[in-house]
Amino acid sequence: MDSLITAAGLALAAGDPLGALDRVALREDAPALALRGIAMAQLGDLDRAKLLLRRAVRGFSPKEPVARARCIVAEAEIALVSRDLGWPAKTLDAARATLEKHGDRLNAAHAGHLEVRRLLLIGRLDEAEDVLAGLDPAPLPPASRAAHELAVAGIAMRRLKTRAARTALEWARHAARRAGIAGLMAEVDSAFLALDTPAARLIANGEERPLLLEEVEALQASPALVVDTFRYVVRSGETAISLATRPVLFALARTLAEAWPGDVSRKELVARAFGGKNADESHRARLRVEIGRLRAELGTLAEIGATKRGFALAPRQARVAVVLARPIEERHAAVLALLADGEAWSSSALALALATGQRSVQRALEQLAVSGKVQSFGHGRARRWMTPPVAGFTTTLLLPAPWLNG
């Protein structure tokens, strides 16, 4: 490898894409094309970067599998940044296997971290943990060690393990400072900010207040009766009852918990659960049926008693009943939550992350665009959607990752 290629590679490793381009910008050989592609990616020109990397892959001979694999890993990182979550994971797995086979453990680990980040975005925590468990951070250089600890922290935050998340982020900050890469240090600082920004709302005794991630973790571990609007469950301690497939019952449970220790009128319950403006006799009859079903579901956690004007919730063992609510509650809050990371998403990537149909996501985006909450650029398959971050809230708890249910 010639000295210019070596110098350009070192410049990229230090986070200096302009320095790398100074050395190889006019060269058309495969190693130079690969380095130019990575440099353009660092500068934000992702389309140009992809073209350069693909030209580099074609330029390397079949006898250079490691160089080809490195280009594939770089292209996978561009796909992740541009939220192309449908990028073939098997291609990345094959590249990672090639790198491991030929002893390039550093780039193999980088490929593993990319896969972890992709799995986190689509809410597959168990799979992300399995991949991360197979990566040994000890021999990694500072920049790669920071990426590893960021992945550890990302999983811990979604598992509501804030102490573990803070520890991982401290290691990440230390490693990022040793690496001296400004962008990496900014990413660590942003992750720390998520721990110190309200992640949910607590509704109790007719009042509400914001909760930090640590406070949400403490609430989940408390004996309180919690109506959880993130996962549509009612829980107390180790017992959790899912109402995810019973939206009417969940609406009733939430309304009763918001009013605890008071009661709720039949008219309000009908309006919240059925959308009816007037509680006529048919609505009252249906309400009695649904309240009976809710009593049966919550039998081990709470009783629902009739009052003169309606119904009241009475926890059996918990001292209080509260509602854990999303920071933002509107029809398409989940779509907004993903877009709030400031990146440009395709509708197909959003559908994959939300585990829903692409057409449903497209309708949601169109409605949000009409109200000015999102904006798009590009056309056809290249169309991307984005929105500025929601000020004052972290999106961690809005992501579609499952929580542990005791």
Structure description:
- Helix content is 56%, strand content 12%.
- The chain is built from 18 helices and eleven strands.
- It has helices spanning 3-13, 17-24, 30-43, 46-59, 65-81, 89-101, 105-121, 125-133, 142-158, 162-179, 182-195, 213-221, 247-259, 266-274, 281-297, 333-339, 347-354, 358-370, and strands at 200-204, 207-211, 225-228, 233-236, 239-242, 263-265, 302-306, 310-315, 321-325, 375-377, 384-386.
- The strands form three sheets. The protein has a six-stranded mixed beta sheet with strand order 2-1-9-3-4-5.
- A hairpin with a 4-residue loop joins strand 3 (225-228) and strand 4 (233-236).
- Helix 8 runs antiparallel to helix 9 (142-158) and helix 10 (162-179) runs antiparallel to helix 11.
- The protein is elongated.
- The N and C termini lie far apart (55 Å).
- The model is unreliable at 389-406 (pLDDT under 50).
